[in-house]
């Protein structure tokens, strides 16, 4: 079984590199595309979905913002299974912090320059929000194109989606980005921050082996 995998906002696959899957699974990682100027979200999803071969059965796995993407792709190309980690099933599960961005439209008016490498101090502070106790936080976030980052933050805050009951959700109980109190996950990682796929990889691997067997 092929599993198409999308990592989190700004993240490459280092955050997922220690996860283990059943031997019969073929992993295919989908890299983030840089959005075109003022590209609508549905258009971006279609471009990402082009990398998925639906001529044979497949599964989808997404982490964080990647979890949102795989659910959108599933509408275009239905998968056998959809698993999301550190992500939400619908806009009803957004935190108050993210809802504030949606209501105020602040992400839309933030200057692109705020997301460039010269704003490294701001970038570092924002990333430590994901896991305050992890001193190596920035090693997981390597896709740093300023326009991509600004565009992605906008799309997360604006995202509207009706829950798909079949989607399998794994959340950490210490996640600040997507707090567990707003969701009813299928699996809970005890002590897991937003970076639980990297810090709690043994527990997550056991779940993935159960899900994809």
Q: Would you kindly provide a written description of the structure presented here, covering whatever features stand out?
A:
There is one protein chain. Helix content is 33%, strand content 13%. It is of the alpha/beta class and 213 residues long. It has a six-stranded parallel β-sheet, with helices on both faces. Strand 3, helix 2 and strand 4 form a beta-alpha-beta unit. The longest helix has 13 residues. Helix 1 packs across helix 2. The N and C termini lie close together (10 Å).
List the uncertain runs: 101-111, 119-123
Largest sheet: 6 strands, parallel
The total count of strands amounts to 6
Computed CA radius of gyration, to the nearest angstrom: 16 Å
C-alpha end-to-end distance: 10 Å
Q: Quote the average pLDDT.
A: 83
Per the principal axes of the C-alpha atoms, what is the gross shape? globular
The topology string of helices and strands comes to: EEHEHEHHHHEEHH
Q: Give the % helix.
A: 25-40%
Portion of residues in beta strands equals: 5-15%
Across the major sheet, the strand order is: 2-1-3-4-5-6
Q: State the helix count.
A: 8
- Which secondary-structure class do the elements indicate? alpha/beta
